């Protein structure tokens, strides 16, 4: 029993406060008012006063009802940790009958009745009952606390027992599910309402737990609760489960009533319980074998499906459930399939990871311990079906690769699936120093590959020629071949009249417009004559154009070998003969300039015969026509002969087929891009066709004939200028119309790659040349040149000619060469490589001019190749060291030899030639053999030192450091002169 306020006591005994205050005053108890507190002894005094005949306190007159309520807190500790605080409220209600009988509503009816008339006995009875109440309350509290402790201990045992067995079945699924599910709430409010005990009217044990939101849809918790609270009397708890708000799971277990603790506000109570829950969670976390492993006791519970990832959630739920639930192992088994299904949804099964691997990674899912001790049949099955498992090779993997002509080290490493450094190391062992980006040749690559334990075979590279033949065959096959015009190439020595002949035939005057009067690049002309259509290729006669002539021979049907009647067979004539024979092309000899006075056609025929050209005139099969390109004499006969030869050849080609042909010339023109002169060999080339030209490709954007007129199509043997290619192809490249752009691109790229590889390989070879050769080369002076020309043919010619100028002392280096005008980047390159730019029939744009002026780059403009060569020769000459020559000055004959004390030996001489000069070197000759090289010590005439003594004059000569001059010797005086050299 405890102190109580007056007004509270009045409320309990159901009497007005004023009456009670008066009775207290009557009983001698002084209180200050309704709020004053009275002690137990004062209550007893009051009772004694009443017993002595005071009026009853009840206003009803015949009974008194006393209600008491007390609240206390019980802290439930666990393992030395701070325990939870549980509020316990005890309520009392007593009714005393005013008459002969005392009525106690809540007291057991079996208690003996008290005589109504005996005040003393009633008072004593009241006192006794109050005392019993106190004891009962204390024992109830004690009992509650003992029960809690017992329950806690029991729960600990259960947890320890379950932690070993339950973990593997449940934990993995929980760990998988957690991060992927949206937060959902499992919000049961569990209320346990025991029946009120007769003596302890109401015992309220309230526990409020705030749980973070779980991540699953709400699941009705079917917690089977065996009440842990056993009050004095038997209590039968019931459980209510109520979903709460989405973010809070509140589990309140109320025993004996639902009223909150009056002493604490709702917020305070919640805070207390949350704190307790957190403590519990922390302690639970520490008890678990791994922080990442969820509590095994979650397994059998449906609440566990919420799969809280955090220890706090797990601990709280387990606290709630374990405290009041005897976890049934059977339930764990029942839940397993459900969880497994959920896990599958969770995504782990969607990963392409073998079950075995998944099993291994199950460590973080809490399954590690189970894995360690016993196999999981499910996982065993999964392992059997595993498809993606990696198995470490147990033996060295021997690869079989194909090696192309050249291969870069990094590419080889990739093919062998090893590190490039391993290849470099292997090559170092073989005595080769390589870097990752260097290209190595096929043989070396095969050696290295075999050294590394792999197998290598030379790659059967796609034969470009075979591929082309196949493609051309594809284009042509199935189309009817029709007669086509002959392609005629005119070849001959310089100035023998090639262009003049063509000029006459075309009735134009092309030759007059050519720079320097010579043809510098190939021209293709399609000419309709009275005798039929003929396509002429006009090739330059200069030696520099050998390559172009070679190409001309390959694309032509007939060669006209033009020989000037007044000049005869010359070097380029012989070269043309070789090309014609090599290409197997029939020749027609045109002996030109027969109008000239010195013309001697018979001499020409003889010379041709000497060069294995068997002319018809000399009994052979090569037709010969005597012409004059100037007067037109014999031209018709020549054309007739040409067509006759063509007829014999039966030249035919399919007309309707997709076109194939050759690039005769290519250039880059401002505003037009790449322009290629294409001679169609088969089929018809049309605008819009997809062309593959060597390493370039593109659609025909526009076509022009030789007169610059746009044309829509070009048939066999017709030359056209084509626009639309990606870049200027190489002169002589095969041209083929394709339908598959992707394939065209692929082939073009492959060819470019090949060109690049060849270039790299060439560079590597040049780098790997003998060290001494390199040193020697570096000692040579260099003339660096950057060539830009209007057409590819001129570029080639210039490059070849200039490179051929190199000598042992001066080397000509072509930094780069290309077609098109001179750009700023050309100037930059020339500046960086200290090169002189040779601009051949091209000009410089304003920016490039300014850049050149700023950087001091020398740009020289030419339109005649001879001038280029002469200029470069003079530049090279300037770099040559001057030649030192000896120039004879005079000769003196020794007539007598004297001895002088001052000078030693002195030779008395007569100057027989030139003059003797004191400052110049001399040689002493005996029988015309040089016996001494030196200089004069003195040159005297009549005892006087003189600088010079001329022929016919006597003089005395003392030779420095030489005393063996004899009578009859000759002394020669000479001078060293430096003479500039020329290339
Ligand atoms: N008298 C005479 N002169 C000729 C004849 N043919 C050419 N010429 C002259 O010879 C010179 C060279 O003629 P081209 O036609 O330019 O000789 P080319 O062989 O084409 O010379 P390149 O283009 O340098 O290879 C010119 O001045 C012509 O006028 C001819 O039949 N008679």
TrEMBL record:
One of the record's GO molecular function terms: translation initiation factor activity
Record field: compositional bias (Basic and acidic residues): 327-337, 368-377
This protein's UniProt keywords: Cytoplasm, GTP-binding, Initiation factor, Nucleotide-binding, Protein biosynthesis
Main location class: cytoplasm
Keyword Glycosyltransferase recorded: no
Annotated InterPro entries: DNA-bd_dom_put_sf, EF-G-like_DII, IF2_assoc_dom_bac, IF2_II, IF2_N, P-loop_NTPase, Small_GTP-bd, T_Tr_GTP-bd_dom
Positions of the Tr-type G domain: 483-652
Taxonomy, superkingdom: Bacteria
Subcellular location, record wording: Cytoplasm
Sequence segments annotated as region (Disordered): 283-313, 327-393
Alphabetized Pfam families for the sequence: EF-G_D2, GTP_EFTU, IF-2, IF2_assoc, IF2_N
Function: One of the essential components for the initiation of protein synthesis. Protects formylmethionyl-tRNA from spontaneous hydrolysis and promotes its binding to the 30S ribosomal subunits. Also involved in the hydrolysis of GTP during the formation of the 70S ribosomal complex.
Family membership noted in the UniProt record: Belongs to the TRAFAC class translation factor GTPase superfamily. Classic translation factor GTPase family. IF-2 subfamily.
UniProt protein name: Translation initiation factor IF-2
Gene: infB
């Amino acid at each position: 029993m405890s102190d109580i306020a007056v007004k509270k006591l009045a409320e309990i005994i159901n009497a007005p406060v004023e009456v009670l205050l008066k009775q207290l005053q009557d009983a001698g108890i002084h209180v200050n008012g309704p709020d004053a507190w009275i002690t137990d002894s004062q209550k007893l005094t009051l009772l004694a006063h009443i017993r002595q005949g005071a009026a009853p306190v009840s206003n009803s007159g015949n009974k008194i009802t006393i209600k008491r309520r007390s609240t206390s807190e019980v802290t439930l500790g666990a393992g030395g940790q701070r325990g939870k605080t549980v509020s316990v409220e005890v309520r009392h209600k007593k009714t005393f009958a005013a008459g002969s009988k005392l009525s106690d509503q809540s007291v057991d009816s079996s208690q003996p009745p008290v005589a109504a008339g005996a005040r003393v006995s009633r008072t004593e009875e009241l006192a006794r009952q109050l005392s019993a109440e106190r004891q009962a309350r204390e024992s109830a509290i004690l009992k509650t606390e003992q029960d809690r402790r017992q329950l806690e201990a029991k729960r600990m045992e259960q947890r320890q027992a379950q932690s070993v067995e339950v973990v593997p079945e449940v934990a993995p699924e929980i760990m998988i599910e957690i991060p992927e599910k949206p937060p959902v709430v499992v919000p049961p409010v569990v209320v346990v309402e025991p029946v009120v005990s007769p003596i302890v009217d109401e015992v309220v044990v309230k526990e409020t737990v705030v749980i973070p939101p779980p991540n699953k849809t709400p699941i009705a918790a079917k917690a089977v609760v065996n009440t842990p609270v056993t009050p004095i009397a038997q209590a039968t708890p019931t459980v209510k489960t109520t979903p709460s708000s989405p973010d809070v799971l509140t589990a309140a277990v109320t025993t004996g009533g639902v009223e909150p603790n009056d002493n604490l506000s709702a917020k305070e109570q919640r805070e207390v319980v949350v704190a307790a829950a957190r403590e519990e969670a922390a302690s639970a976390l520490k008890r678990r074998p791994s922080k990442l492993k969820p509590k095994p006791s979650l397994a059998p519970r449906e609440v566990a499906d919420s799969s809280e990832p955090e220890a706090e959630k797990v601990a709280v739920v387990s606290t709630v459930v374990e405290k009041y639930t005897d976890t049934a192992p059977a339930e764990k088994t029942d839940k397993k399939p459900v969880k497994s299904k959920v896990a599958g949804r969770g995504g782990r099964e969607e990963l392409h990871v073998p079950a075995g691997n998944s099993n291994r990674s199950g460590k973080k899912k809490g399954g590690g311990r189970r894995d360690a001790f016993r196999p999981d049949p499910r996982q065993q099955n999964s392992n059997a079906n595993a498809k993606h498992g990696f198995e470490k090779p147990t033996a060295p993997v021997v690869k079989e690769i194909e090696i192309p002509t050249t291969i870069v080290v990094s590419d080889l490493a990739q093919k062998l699936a090893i590190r490039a450094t391993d290849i470099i190391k292997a090559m170092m062992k073989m005595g080769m120093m390589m870097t990752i980006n260097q290209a190595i040749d096929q043989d070396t690559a095969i050696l290295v590959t075999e050294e590394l334990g792999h197998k290598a075979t030379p790659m059967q590279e796609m034969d470009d020629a075979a591929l082309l033949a196949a493609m051309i065959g594809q284009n042509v096959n199935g189309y009817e071949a029709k007669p086509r015009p002959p392609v005629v190439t005119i070849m001959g020595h310089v100035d023998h009249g090639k262009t003049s002949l063509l000029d006459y035939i075309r009735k134009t005057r092309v030759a007059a417009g050519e720079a320097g009067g010579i043809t510098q690049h190939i021209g293709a002309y399609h000419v309709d004559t009275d005798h039929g259509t003929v396509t002429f290729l006009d090739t330059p006669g200069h030696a520099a154009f050998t390559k172009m002539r070679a190409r001309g021979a390959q694309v032509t049907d007939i060669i006209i070998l033009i020989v000037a009647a007044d000049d005869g067979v010359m070097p380029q004539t012989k070269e043309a003969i070789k090309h014609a024979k090599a290409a197997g092309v029939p020749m027609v000899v045109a002996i030109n300039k027969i109008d000239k006075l010195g013309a001697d056609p018979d001499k020409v025929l003889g010379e041709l015969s000497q060069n294995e050209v068997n002319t018809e005139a000399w009994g052979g099969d090569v037709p010969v026509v005597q012409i004059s390109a100037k007067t037109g004499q014999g031209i018709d006969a020549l054309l007739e002969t040409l067509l006759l030869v063509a007829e014999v050849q039966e030249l035919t080609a399919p007309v309707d087929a997709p076109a194939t042909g050759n690039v005769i010339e290519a250039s880059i023109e401002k505003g037009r891009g790449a322009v290629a002169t294409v001679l169609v060999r088969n089929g018809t080339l049309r605008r819009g066709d997809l062309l593959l030209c060597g390493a370039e490709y593109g659609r025909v954007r526009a076509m022009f004939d030789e007169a610059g007129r746009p044309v829509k199509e070009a048939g066999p043997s017709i030359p056209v200028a084509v626009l639309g290619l990606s870049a200027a192809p190489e002169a002589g490249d095969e041209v083929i119309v394709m339908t598959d752009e992707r394939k065209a691109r692929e082939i073009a790229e492959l060819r470019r790659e090949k060109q690049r590889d060849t270039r790299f390989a060439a560079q590597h070879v040049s780098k790997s040349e003998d060290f001494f050769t390199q040193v020697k080369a570096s000692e040579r002076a260099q003339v660096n040149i950057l060539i830009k020309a209007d057409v590819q043919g001129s570029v080639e010619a210039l490059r070849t000619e200039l490179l051929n100028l190199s000598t042992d002392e001066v080397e000509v280096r072509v930094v780069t060469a290309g077609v098109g005008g001179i750009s700023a980047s050309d100037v930059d390159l020339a500046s960086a490589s200290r090169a002189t730019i040779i601009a051949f029939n091209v000009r410089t744009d304003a920016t490039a001019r300014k850049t050149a002026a700023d950087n001091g780059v020398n740009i020289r403009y030419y339109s005649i190749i001879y001038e280029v060569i002469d200029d470069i020769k003079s530049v090279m000459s300037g770099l040559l060291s001057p030649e030192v020559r000896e120039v004879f000055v005079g000769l003196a004959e020794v007539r007598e030899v004297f001895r002088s004390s001052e000078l030693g030996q002195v030779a008395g001489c007569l100057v027989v030639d030139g003059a003797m000069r004191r400052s110049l070197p001399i040689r002493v000759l005996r029988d015309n053999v040089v016996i001494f090289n030196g200089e004069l010590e003195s040159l005297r005439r009549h005892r006087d030192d003189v600088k010079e003594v001329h022929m016919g004059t006597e003089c005395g000569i003392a030779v420095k450091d030489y005393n063996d001059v004899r009578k009859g010797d000759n002394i020669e005086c000479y001078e060293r002169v430096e003479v500039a050299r020329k290339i």
